[in-house]
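Example record used in the benchmark description.
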Amino acid sequence: MAINTLDQDTLIREISQLKSRVSRLMAIFSGQQIDGLHIKDLAVTDAKIESVSADKITTGTLQVGEYIYVGTDIIIGTPP
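Model output (structure tokens):
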């Protein structure tokens, strides 16, 4: 059965998109770093995090180990 040119182009484009998705999933499963990954809900028991950036943090209790900056002013603790 032959397919017309439009159907063939659509199939080629969809196959390319699927290959891209599979490559990204393979990178995630193999432990490679993924830039721009969005996770809606995550529960972590323990983690080693180098840095965190957040526009808004909502919490019941926040424990600070060393110090907090607001702008350039230290409001809690003493920096190293």
